[in-house]
Amino acid sequence: MAQAEKKGGLLRKSSASRKPLKEKVVLMYDEIFMTEDPSKCNPRFWEELFLMKVNLEYLEGKLEALDGEELMKIKDNINCLFQHCIQALGEEHPIRVVNALQVPC
């Protein structure tokens, strides 16, 4: 798959008949940027997140796009992200450790 097609977390550009296809990790990042706790519907949310390759470009873009008011609305989710990131650093699973190290702190 060409790199240009993956820009912004999209695996496929949208066409008239198809919705754009997003990476699963991007969909999970989008859940973090909602006001509800992402692990409420999926208790394994944080475990799954750190098993996936980080899309740093997308995550940094989402964080930079927030203004102060938006950030305060999702403060709890952002704090959970960094808390689980720190916990993942102490795990024995090397993929989780490497992916947790890549999350911008």
Polypeptide structure, described:
The protein is mainly α and 105 residues long. The chain has one domain. Helices cover 51% and strands 5% of the residues. The chain contains six helices and two strands. It has a two-stranded antiparallel ribbon. α5 crosses α6. The chain is globular, with a radius of gyration of 14 Å. The N and C termini lie far apart (30 Å). Mean pLDDT is 85; it is low at 1-5. This is ARMD3 protein. InterPro entries: ARMD3-like.
Fold blueprint:
Blueprint: E1 10-12, E2 21-22, H1 24-32, H2 45-49, H3 56-65, H4 68-73, H5 75-89, H6 94-102
Antiparallel strand pairs: 1-2
Query: What's the overall geometry?
Result: globular
Assess the beta-strand content as a share of residues: under 5%
Oligomeric state, counting identical vs distinct chains: single chain
Q: How many domains make up the 3D coordinates?
A: 1
Mean pLDDT: 85
Enumerate how many helices there are, as a single number.
Answer: 6
Strand order of the largest sheet: 1-2
Give the low-confidence spans: 1-5
Q: What order do the SSEs take from the amino end to the carboxyl end, as H and E?
A: EEHHHHHH
First and last CA, distance: 30 Å
Main sheet makeup = 2 strands, antiparallel
Please tell me how large the radius of gyration is: 14 Å
Number of beta strands: 2
Overall SS class = mainly alpha
Helix content: 40-55%
